């Protein structure tokens, strides 16, 4: 079967156009793959759960009889160790969890006003 002479440049143009469209779409058009979209959704869900759990951390800190001493320890810690210090207080441990949550500790620290240097 013989194809007309104009089909060869047309096919090449369609292929090059599709490649350019894909590059522009993924880089600047906001297109994402399924994996990227799922990761983004998981990150947003984790952030929402952390935000919802901050009141538990705040309540734990207010109910702690050693609150003043623990806050003093947190304030004495270096800026990079403050999150670990909040985790050591136990305030960032959710009910039923075995260990504290790092993201919750950071959010709780921010709400308590302990993140200032």
Helix count?
5
Mean pLDDT: 90
Q: Work out the radius of gyration.
A: 26 Å
What are the low-pLDDT stretches, counting only 5+ consecutive residues below 50? none
From the spread of the alpha carbons, the general shape counts as rod-shaped
Overall SS class: mainly alpha
Q: Oligomerization state of this entry? A: single chain
Strand content: under 5%
Roughly what percent helix? 55-70%
The number of E-state strands comes to 0
Order of helices and strands: HHHHH
Distance between the termini: 77 Å
Sum this structure up briefly.
With 117 residues, the chain is mainly alpha-helical. The protein has helices at 7-27, 34-63, 67-76, 82-89, 102-111.
């Amino acid at each position: 079967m013989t194809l007309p002479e104009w089909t060869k440049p047309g096919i090449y143009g369609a292929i090059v156009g599709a490649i350019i469209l894909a590059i522009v779409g993924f880089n600047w058009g906001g297109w994402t793959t399924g994996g990227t979209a799922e990761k983004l959704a998981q990150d947003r869900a984790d952030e929402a759960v952390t935000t919802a759990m901050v009141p538990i951390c705040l309540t734990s800190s207010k109910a702690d009889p050693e609150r003043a001493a623990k806050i003093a320890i947190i304030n004495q810690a270096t800026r990079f160790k403050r999150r670990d210090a909040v985790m050591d207080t136990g305030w960032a441990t959710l009910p039923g969890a075995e260990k504290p949550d790092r993201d919750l500790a950071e959010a709780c620290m921010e709400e308590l006003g302990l993140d200032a240097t």
